[in-house]
Write a structure and sequence with these properties.
heterodimer; A: alpha/beta; about 10% strand; B: mainly beta; Rieske Iron-sulfur Protein; three-stranded antiparallel sheet; 1 helix; about 45% strand
């Protein structure tokens, strides 16, 4: 076991979406019958970025053997192996991309209840995010209200590429509910499979998808900041999941610079944008963009200039590092206590209630 | 420090601006509802002439979506990159701690008085009938 990671809080592990048959017990009678008679039990509702569709999404030595449950794999590969203190799991189910919002809401409820019963109740090191039906903000808020009483849910989970930028006021009830319950808004890489994944249209390759994906995150940060979400909801924290972070310094510089000339558009933004973002935004460690020399990573962190920003993550089971090298070379030693635990405890207030 | 007669008052119309040169320095004169102010006429950012900028107010909002103007027309917006400066103080709105334009004291003096000195009016012929702007540099 790599001792440096013992007790760490892993802020991004993946809970593989279950086969639809496994969700039937968690659907209400109407939807259970509908799924059965409409032949939907065989549909997997997998997003294109799921491990089953994207080989890169699962490290070869972490692929499941026969008959081993997802939880057993997570325990063997991560929780027991690294001696993880707490891990926050995300179940990226395709429910969020459906066009029918009632079915999406029913599936999100089923997924969240399945996560609670089949994962959280079976390993007390696990926490999870609330999957919400972003097709309809009122339904998303209802799902937050329904799940928030279970303190093992520590975050709200949405995808980075949605129908509308997250700062817009139609989303504010979601931000209000998240902030009121002490749940950061987790924005995970990925989209709804119906909007081009680059600003200039559909790419041809997974390669482009992976490289350009970061642009969705700076668009979301720009939207949240300029629309005044952090002014309106000063307690809200946003966590970028699987976004990478080497793009952040130039984004912060550019934001500050352009704001100076155009700030009359957003008079509620009364401080330097970079200062507001450093206060409200957190980013998970993996994937690291692997600059060619370790000192380049250290230089990027110095440019981000915020020891509170990064949250340790393995991004299990995605193939972001080999062997036990979850901590990239170039991380300053002095940053490790905050990176591995302190920042997560400060970001997710619910973790401190039960932190081992 | 010396005091320089730089323009007739009528050359800087209400809410207008005029660029003059004193001791080789470009200076922007502003008329703010009959009050006169003078700033060094180079933006501290990249050096644009502030005289060529637009007069704007300060936009404020207590909450997103509620817009209100304060200090109507009392800011000058640099024509190049939109940085706003307070005409009264030269302070930058965005970065008042670190960025400011030098301001100079301006006074309005009657031509009759100027004719007696000790003002330097090398560039502006003074007549006793007019009022003049005098800048201390």
């Amino acid at each position: 076991m790599p001792t440096a990671l013992h007790g760490a809080i892993d802020c991004d592990v993946h809970i593989p979406p279950p086969p639809t048959a496994a969700l039937l017990p968690y659907l209400d009678a109407y939807w259970r019958e509908q799924f059965t008679i409409r032949g939907l039990v065989g549909a997997d509702f997998a997003l294109t970025t799921s491990a089953s569709r994207t080989p890169l999404a699962c490290r070869p030595d972490w692929r499941p053997g026969k008959g081993e449950s997802g939880l057993a794999l997570l325990q063997r590969h991560v929780l027991d192996h690294f001696g993880t203190g707490i891990a926050i799991g995300h179940c990226l189910h395709g429910a969020v991309a459906l066009h029918t919002e009632d079915m999406a809401a029913a599936l999100c409820r089923a997924v969240n209840d399945w996560v609670a019963a089949e994962w959280l109740s079976r390993d007390d090191r696990l926490r999870a995010s609330i999957l919400v039906p972003t097709q309809n903000v009122a339904l998303a808020v209802a799902e937050i209200e329904r799940c928030a009483a279970d303190r093992r849910f520590v975050q709200v989970l949405v995808l980075a590429m949605l129908d509308h930028p997250l700062g817009r006021r139609q989303w504010w009830p979601l931000h209000e509910a998240a902030a009121r319950h002490g749940l950061p808004l987790g924005i995970h890489a990925g989209g709804l499979n119906r909007h081009a994944t680059t600003p200039t249209g559909w790419p041809s390759t997974h390669l482009e998808d992976h490289v350009v994906g970061a642009q969705a995150f700076d668009a979301q940060l720009a939207s949240l900041l300029t629309e005044g979400v952090f002014t309106k909801f000063p307690d809200l924290r946003v966590v970028l999941l699987e976004s990478g972070f080497t793009w952040l310094p130039t984004f912060l510089w550019r934001m500050n610079k352009i704001w100076r000339g155009l700030r009359a558009e957003v008079p509620w933004v009364t401080r330097l944008p970079a200062d507001i973002l450093r206060q409200h935004v957190r980013i998970t460690l993996q994937p690291v963009d692997a600059p060619p020399r370790p000192e380049m990573l250290a230089a990027t962190l110095a440019q981000i200039d915020c020891d509170d920003m990064l949250l340790f993550s393995t991004d299990y089971p995605h193939w972001q590092f080999d062997a036990d090298a979850a901590l990239p070379e170039g991380l300053p030693e002095a940053l490790l206590p905050k990176l591995l635990r302190g920042n997560a405890l400060a970001t997710f207030p619910r973790l401190a209630e039960t932190a081992p | 420090m010396s005091r320089h007669v730089v323009a007739r008052v009528s050359e800087v119309p209400p809410e207008g601006a005029l660029r003059v040169t004193v001791k080789g320095r470009p200076i922007a004169l502003f008329n703010l509802s009959g009050e006169f102010f003078a700033l060094y006429d180079r933006c501290p950012h990249e050096g644009a002439s502030l005289c060529a900028g637009r007069r704007v107010s300060i936009a404020v909002a207590d909450t997103p979506g509620e817009y209100r103007l304060e200090r109507r027309g009392e800011m000058i917006r640099c024509p190049w990159h939109g940085w706003d400066f307070d005409i009264r103080t030269g302070q930058s709105w965005c970065d008042p701690e670190h960025t400011r334009v030098r301001r100079y004291a301006v006074s309005v003096e009657a031509g009759e008085r100027l004719a007696k000195g000790p003002f330097r009016a090398e560039s502006v012929p003074v007549s006793v009938e007019d009022d003049y702007l005098v800048v201390e540099v």
